Amino acid sequence: MTLTATPTETEVKLSAATPADHDTIRALLNTCGLTTQSLNFDAPGTFWVARQDGRPVGCIGLEHGQGASLLRSTCVLPEARGLGVGRALVRSALTLATLRGDHGVYLFSNDAPDYWTRLGFSEVPSATLADVLPDAPQVLSGVTRGWIHEERAWHLELAPRPEQPEHLEEHEPQ
Asked: Where does the N-acetyltransferase domain lie (predicted)?
C-alpha cells in the first residue's frame, strides 16, 4: 500500500517496507538517535518508509501481538519535520492495527510525551505494556537488557473494526 501526502510543493510517499528497506530503516533510526538493537524484521510486524521526492525521510514499525500491537521506531529526519510525515506514518500504522482487529496500540517514548498525547495516547505503566505484548521484540529487549521500567509507555484504545458490508465479506466456497 502506498499513500501520498502533499503538505507542501514536495511529494511525500509512504510505502510498506520490503527487505531492501531494512538498511534504510536502520540508517534513519541511527540518524534520529534511536536504537536499532531490538529490530527484528523476521518477527510478526510491519514497517513503513516515508520518502520525500524519492529520498527516505522517515519510518515507523508496528509489532503485532494478540489483539494489540506495539508502535515502534517512529522517526522523521529533522528537515522533513512539520510536513505531516510523522502523522501520516502513525495514521498508516493505526489503520493497519484497526484492520487487524487490535483493541489497542502501545508504544514506548520518553522524549515525545506531548506528541503522543496530541494523537490521543495516554500514559500507562510499562509493566502493562509488557503484560499485553510479552513477545514483541522491543519488549523482550527491554526485559532482557533491564531498561523496560525506565521507559514511559503509552496506549491508544482503538475503535472496534467496522463491519464490512455483506457484499464485501469473504465467503468460504461451498
From this structure: 12-146
